[in-house]
Amino acid sequence: MLILYTNHYSVLEGDGPGCWRLKARLESSDDWRAVCVITEAEVLKGRLAQIQRTKQPDRGIEAYSFLQDSVTHLNSWLILPWTEQAADIYDSLKHLRSKVGAMDLRIAAIALSINATVLTRNLVDFTKVPGLRVENWLD
Fold it and tell me: The pTM is what?
């Protein structure tokens, strides 16, 4: 199983060469592909922030369109839940004091709970998590 971290998932919402290369690589993989509920929340939080920043809320057509597109795109993915097992792993990881952010630790905990690999550009932080498999497919 491959879990796309937010930086990998966001590339797929684009339309550049990086998007097409990542899509091709994902399609050639035999592994299941998913995002976790943490990434889903981050994407939607970003879209809602765009709406909040719209100077003329009644004219926020583009911002609302981006939100709608993101919801539609996310609905086409397997979304991995935050589970009791992931929460237990998260609690054990917090005690390591690895200076990895809470959201990244939650994503790592979900990945560890199902023995998945996280696709991320953030190798510096994720490689601090014992036993977590991480790869960067963008650089």
Answer: 0.89
